[in-house]
Amino acid sequence: MTLSYFLRGNELHILAGEISKIYHIENANDIADVTPALIYNTIVQNQSQDVRKIIYPIGPGSFTATRTISSIATGFSIANPTIEIIGVSSFLAYVSVASKTSLHYAIAIPTMRGDFFIYETSKGSLGDYKIASAANITQRNLAVFYPASEIFTNINLAATQISAYNTQRSDAKCFT
Q1: Residue-range domain boundaries for the chain
Q2: Strand arrangement, sheet containing 19-24
Q3: pLDDT tens-digit readout, 75-128
Q4: What is the per-residue pLDDT across 25-55, written as a single tens digit (0 to 9) for each?
């Protein structure tokens, strides 16, 4: 079974085999405490603890979320060294959804310092990500999507992450 998980704000998105879940974590301070249990419970609901591959985002994103999900993957790999662990850019899931809406767009993830990690495309070709100010983003003639944007609502980004990984893994810019 492939396990994929993704944190979007206070939402934990999980895909474990055929089980797709989006959990809302009320208190952001609880993310590190409840995420491992929610992932484990989803695996158990799938009635298969035979995890063969884990796909998880490695950032950019909040420090707590990135460290939490990275630590969970590390824990799985220590417990079972045969599990394939694949860390991908957080942009991968967002790009997969946003690319269906526009050829010219940017994904902007807040850095918590008042600026943004921005991943920009032009005419459908993939770009690199960089740090940009809010003023810099608004000067561009692009559709700008933020992790809280409505287009990502009710979409399991863990499932999108797997699909995007399987179809775009030859594009090195989406990984690491």
Answers
A1: 2-89+154-174, 92-145
A2: 19-24, 11-16, 2-8, 53-57, 84-88
A3: 988 988 999 999 988 888 888 888 777 667 788 888 777 888 888 776 545 566
A4: 988 788 888 988 898 888 888 776 688 899 9
Instruction: Give this prediction's pTM.
Output: 0.80
Residue 159: partners with Cβ closer than 8 Å, 6 or more residues away: 4, 13, 15, 20
CB 5 within 8 Å of CB 69: yes
Superfamily of domain 2-89+154-174: ATPase, nucleotide binding domain (3.30.420.40)
Alpha-carbon span 46 to 113, nearest angstrom: 39
